[in-house]
Design a protein that fits this description.
two-stranded antiparallel sheet, 2 domains, Multidrug-efflux Transporter Regulator, Chain: A, Domain 2, mainly alpha, 60% helix
């Protein structure tokens, strides 16, 4: 069984332009073309696209996705590189969470600094958004 690009998109939730981009970047093999020049994808293309989408949903950058795909082409290789990629992504996520927690705390402080009882000229929220020096922490 093979699939059109629209069917592939529908089954994976990946938009057609993104599928084309992945082809252009070499993450998906160039599909077979019909006499009418329509792309036709095979089940292994569907599985590859699902793999790419899940990697991207987990926030992996494109070079890491490419490395994992390349690694998957060598089933006898040890998996330390895959482990390294997972650990690096976990660290990246933890750093973003820490950043977001600082951002949350600063926004909470700003939101609590004014309860709307002032004029716009006296508004602490507008002052805080307009001057980074009024922030308590680097965010």
């Amino acid at each position: 069984m093979d699939f059109s690009i629209g069917e592939l998109s529908k089954q994976t939730g990946v938009k057609v332009p993104t599928i084309r981009y992945y082809e252009k970047e070499g993450l998906l093999e160039a599909p077979v073309r019909t006499e009418g020049n329509q792309r036709r994808y095979r089940p292994n293309d569907l599985e590859r696209l699902r793999f790419i989408k899940h990697c991207r949903d987990l926030g992996l950058p494109m070079p890491a996705v490419r490395d994992l795909i390349d690694l998957g082409q060598h089933p006898d290789k040890p998996c330390q590189e895959a482990d390294r990629i997972a650990v690096a992504q976990l660290q990246s996520v933890r750093e973003r969470i820490a950043h977001l927690k600082k951002l949350e705390a600063e926004l909470q402080r700003i939101a609590n600094s004014c309860k709307g009882g002032h004029t716009v000229t006296e508004c602490n929220v507008l002052k805080a958004f307009g001057d980074h020096r009024l922030c308590i922490d680097s965010h």
